[in-house]
């Protein structure tokens, strides 16, 4: 199991993640959802772990 990392990483990953699925509560009322993309408001995140194992894949596909 991979524990999700920093807030910055979660936003970067969600922006680049094809599996990002916003939760109903967060983004429907938010303006400028692009800025709010983060694993923290993705349905696939549970207990700080990406349940579809995309976090590491996306993170490693991004260049640092
Ligand atoms: S929680 Fe998983 S599926 Fe959702 S944006 Fe993050 S890496 Fe992608």
- How many strands in all? 2
Mean pLDDT: 82
Q: Given the helix and strand composition, which structural class is it?
A: mainly alpha
Helical content stands at 25-40%
Order of helices and strands: HHHEEH
- Gyration radius, in Å: 11 Å
What is the topology, as strand order, of the major beta sheet? 1-2
Envelope shape: globular
Number of helices: 4
| End-to-end CA span | 23 Å
List unreliable stretches of 5+ residues.
none
What is the beta-strand fraction? 5-15%
Sheet having the most strands: 2 strands, antiparallel
Tally of discrete structural domains: 1
Which hetero compounds are present in the coordinates?
iron/sulfur cluster
Summarize the structure.
The protein is mainly alpha-helical. The protein has helices at 7-16, 24-27, 33-36, 55-61; strands at residues 45-46, 49-50. The chain has one domain (7-61).
Description:
By secondary structure, this protein is mainly α. It contains four helices and two strands. Strands 1-2 form a two-stranded antiparallel ribbon. The longest helix is centred in the first third of the chain and has 10 residues, at 7-16. The relative contact order is 0.27.
Which labels suit this protein?
64 residues, mainly alpha, two-stranded antiparallel sheet, 4 helices, 6% strand, globular, binds iron/sulfur cluster
What's the layout of helices and strands?
Blueprint: H1 7-16, H2 24-27, H3 33-36, E1 45-46, E2 49-50, H4 55-61
Antiparallel strand pairs: 1-2
This protein binds iron/sulfur cluster (SF4).
